[in-house]
Amino acid sequence: MGHDDDLSRMSADCIFCSIVDGDIPARTVYETDDVLAFLDATPLARGHTLVIPKSHAKHVGDLDDDLASDLFAAVTELTPRVQSTVGADGANVGINDGEAAGQEVPHVHVHIIPRFEGDGGAPLHAVGGERPDLSDDELDAVAEAIAE
């Protein structure tokens, strides 16, 4: 089941929608009816790849189940391919969801960032800033609220 009807949900001022439309060139590395992947124009590492849904969705929570599944299927196929192509020792795979998290383009995109031993980079754990001091009661309350 395709999402061709969703392609009408493009955003005129979105750079990633413009790439999907072919108005802005990109170094495409993977494409299906619903997903596009291309090299990041300002890479953090050789092979840094962005994987996006072709239809415009600003946040992870805006994706329907099928599209989320298609998106992550592309990520699981591409991550080892990107790593082997550039000879990486690992990769960080992540999504910045919202401006406070560092999302610069308001269109969901998954980063595949190849990592190399001794490259000076940090793990995803480093993005959180200072760790909060949470009591067991606070942790229980948050867990219960999320689970509801």
Explained architecture:
The protein is built from three helices and five strands, in the order αβββαββα. By secondary structure, it is of the alpha+beta class. The protein has one domain: HIT family, subunit A (2-Layer Sandwich). Strands 1-2-3-5-4 form a five-stranded antiparallel beta sheet, covered by helices on one side. The longest helix is centred in the middle third of the chain and has 22 residues, at about 65-85. It is globular, with a radius of gyration of 17 Å. The two termini are about 30 Å apart. Mean pLDDT is about 90; it is low at about 1-10.
- The domain tally reads 1
CATH class: Alpha Beta
SSE run: HEEEHEEH
CATH architecture grouping: 2-Layer Sandwich
Name the beta content range: 15-25%
Overall outline: globular
CATH topology: HIT family, subunit A
End-to-end separation: 31 Å
Mean pLDDT: 92
Radius of gyration: 17 Å
Number of helices: 3
Strand order of the largest sheet: 1-2-3-5-4
Structural class: alpha+beta
Spans where pLDDT lies below 50 across 5 or more residues: 1-8
Number of strands: 5
What would you give as the CATH superfamily?
HIT-like
Helical percentage: 25-40%
Major sheet attributes: 5 strands, antiparallel
